[in-house]
Design a protein that fits this description.
221 residues, 5 helices, binds ligand PMT
């Protein structure tokens, strides 16, 4: 929108996907390109916001006018998000965060030994950043927005996730081999804690971003 309806607001957006290292050359990761999060940052700048973009392993040009903070792991993203959220009006978690990380990090490259089966990789749970941000609002009236990537029972799973995470809005996108991740377009349903359900047709990720900001702007104190 041309309207400066986010002027004077500080918004924090996370983008991309975390990488959880196994050894110096290997990691557990996901298919997020960062396009949706970068589109949220660019459209928020256009609507007048001060934008902090927490960027996890994204290879896109930085959106003009946004402060970019680069992170890689879920633990680094958590630290950066809690710090940036202190004076934020809105926090949007569009990043795909690994739910688990390898329990141990091997300081040297893990070697294959002839005739020996590989040991299973033990995982430990990562903190849920969105749930933490929602539970401990860093500022009165702060809005917390999550994204959810679902492959089936999109609405039922989305509604349950909104309640579980405790956020104000949850943008549920259906993902799959040919949807969501990496593409330039996305479709979603924006669920709110106040019970509304807004369907956004498949289109450019910038259009979805603007539709999310419309929902946010309508709820800002
Ligand atoms: O980057 P693109 O290629 O453009 O793709 C965009 C996208 C599909 C990655 C994006 O639109 C999206 O859906 N992002 C959220 C993906 C995700 O991790 O969904 P989830 O259902 O696993 O997590 C739900 C929410 O909790 C998310 O807001 C996530 O940031 C947050 N979360 C999850 C786990 C965790 N440990 N901490 C979190 O904060």
């Amino acid at each position: 929108g041309l309207e400066q309806d986010l002027a004077g607001r500080h918004v924090v957006v996370s983008a991309g996907g975390t990488r959880e290292p196994l050894d110096p050359v290997r990691f557990l990761g996901n298919r997020s390109s960062g396009k949706q999060g970068y589109a949220l940052a660019a459209t928020a700048v256009a609507r007048g916001a001060r934008v902090t973009l927490l960027s996890a392993n994204v290879e896109l040009p930085a959106p003009a006018g946004a402060d970019v903070v680069r992170v890689s792991t879920a633990l680094q993203l958590r630290e950066a998000a809690l710090k940036a959220a202190v004076d934020a009006d809105v926090v949007v978690m569009a990043a795909a965060v690994a739910d688990f990380r390898p329990a141990e990090y091997a300081g040297g490259k893990i070697k294959k030994v002839d005739g020996v089966d590989p040991a299973p990789v033990a995982l430990v749970r990562n903190p849920d950043i969105l749930a933490e941000l929602s539970a401990q609002r860093q500022r009165g009236g702060q809005l917390v927005v999550g994204f959810a990537a679902e492959t089936d029972d999109v609405l039922a799973n989305g509604r349950a996730k909104l309640t579980r995470k405790g956020c104000d809005l949850l943008v549920v996108n259906e993902v799959g081999e040919s949807r969501g991740f990496g593409l330039d377009t996305n479709a979603a349903v924006v669920l709110s804690a106040d019970g509304t359900e807004v369907h956004i047709a498949d289109g450019p990720k910038e259009d979805l971003a603007d539709a999310v900001w419309d929902q946010v702007a309508a709820r800002l104190p």
